[in-house]
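Q: Structure tokens for this one, please.
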Amino acid sequence: WAEAVLGDTGRAGKRLRLAEALGAALERRGGDATLADAARAIRAHARDPRATRLLASAHREYARGRKAYREADKKGAGDHCARVLEIAPPSPALRGWAGVYRAAGISFEGDHSRAVAEFEAQRAKVDTARHPALAATLHSGLATALLRGGSHQQSRDASRIAARHYTRAGERESEGGEIFQQATTEFGMGLDWEAYATMHRALVTLRDFRASRFLHALLLSASQSLADDGFRHTALALQDEAVAVAGRTRVRAFVAESHARRAQLRAGLGDSAGAETDARAAARHLDDVVLATWPWITVDLRLVRGRLRLRTDPAGALAAFDSVAVAVDTARTVRRYVLALVGAAEARLALGDAAGAAADLQKATERLGLQGSAIETASLRASLLDGAREVFDRLVMLEVARGREREALEFLERGRVSFPPAGPREGAAAGVARPPAGSVAVVYALIGDTLLTWTVAGDTVRLVRQSVDHAGLLARVEAVRALEGSRDEAAARSVLASLYDRLVRPVERALGGAETPLVLVADGELTRVPFSALYDTRRRRYLVEARPLRFASSLRDAARAPSDAAAAGAEALVVANPAFDPRMYALEPLREAEAEARTVAATYPGARVLPGREATPSALRAALPGSRLFHFAGHAVFDDDRPGRSFLVLAPDSGGASRLMADEVAGMDLRGVGVAVLSACETLPSREGRSGGFAGFAGAFLAAGADGVVGSLWPVDDRRTRPLMVAFHRAYGRSGDGAAALRAAQLELLRGRDPDLASPSTWAAFRYAGR
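A: Here is the predicted structure, written as tokens:
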């Protein structure tokens, strides 16, 4: 109609009648009345030529804006819709839709707070009963702006409202897209289980829309999630479907993006030829609009090409990585920036430039420290550092070969994940951090068949280098776990003694006198070692009998003093045997857990107890911040592949949620917590990589600002756990020192009369990590 009015007026009447018929049909079926109202506004001003031309000009601008939006040019869409509002047509329905897309354009340009304000202003004007599609689109845009601004929970709420309005409007494809938006938000909140279920609902909703841009985005996201979870071949199969859907949309940006993502997957699987083919296919679709609106596609292609050239053309790879580092050096692109710097460091090492490689890694680790809030979770920060481990290791060994022991330790430290208190992050300090006065830090690194052990006491740094059988050493570590619950004390001591001789004996002279506290910093493989139970055959005692022990993720963390906020915490919080749904979790009931929790609570006057059905995720989220001590007596489930998805099993909320994820804990502000005691199975396990035993819950609580965590290395029967926990809290209530209190409890069991409790398989399962 608008084009006809502004050109061939003879067709205008026919097209308006068609619009009126479509609008009436939508109204009869209970759909959105926007089209009918827009046609009525045109009829109402039919006798006013000026108003008619205003309406026509505005409708044409709006049509151009919607076309730009469909082609993924969201900034262009916002600009066109802004001109609609400048024209100020006498059509509330048209102004409403233009306002929504203008706000979406503002959000896309990065001004999320302004976009939220625009959406909120529009929301007050929308008649949701008469215009459900407009209300849905508005809430969808609001959800996106809130998500980009970091307000995850509010975003999910807005997205759920949008999906309901799309259902009322009968727009099933858009409904599926909005359900997918909810899944994206839930992933960002660390609610991976819920996110996967929501993503499945979105796939079911969209399966009939084979050329849908929403289906394309959903397949792209699902493929990435599968790849992150280690299912790379499955991710590739899903990405094949994403490429096909993108082709059917005929949107050049989607085609380019889908090929670029498949190139990354193929490169990771070693399919260089396939990755090159996809990279070329993506490049063919990078026109000016795509390049301006989707710059990250070019960035991802450069990362792929850099990775493909590392072995054959390191100079070319370096050029690709350096161009990425320059292009994405912003707070919003930390992940790509770090990946580019790590790749550049690999290329420089291949070219013999160790100093340049070191400088690149220094930039990467500084950015992870300064911009930690831009990385979604502590476990993601750890995974980025783990991905650079080989480069760090090569630099460490180069410095060791040169006899530069302190510099080698500095490189090792840069590659370790650190957990500063919640709030603004600090950059990586230069030099080797000192351990607390009066203590000695022992830093281990297992690089191939070389075991490096540094001792740091004040300003004195020493290194002991040993050649070891890597597999044999780790086999002895695993043998200790296999002895859990065993009554063969002789066999257990033999293994523990062999580990003592390898890990402690070579550095004994540097550990100070009796009772000198040790701070242990170890790699992922070695964090499985129950250091407290290592047995000294010469003195016939366990290491815990000789000196206090605590563990830290890095020397930087070891050097930090306990926070003042923890000392001023409000009260102790004790979770007592949550009443989980046995149909959802195949877990045995913990018969001693509630009695343990009640006894622990009695140690702290005014302690708050969340028992049974009261121990829900929402109750824990509300109570945990500000508590000075947290004790959890219940079940925990650890995810080896994605430690951030590990969760505490809780009683179901009114909405059915019954778990608290480690990544969600990491996002809290727990600077008031002096110690978190996780009296559950495997809450402080380990994995390969520099993040080691600080993946999962230990890292989550430390990242959130807690001073320390007491967690378990392996499953322990709750009957045997209870005496250790009671003894720990009795000692902690007197001293407020988590490491000292755990040692006192361990010695109490070790020297007691009950052989089950005196066994290292009971008391050595727990360790203290933190400040």
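A few notes: The CA atoms of residues 221 and 592 lie 43 Å apart. The longest helix spans residues 49-70.
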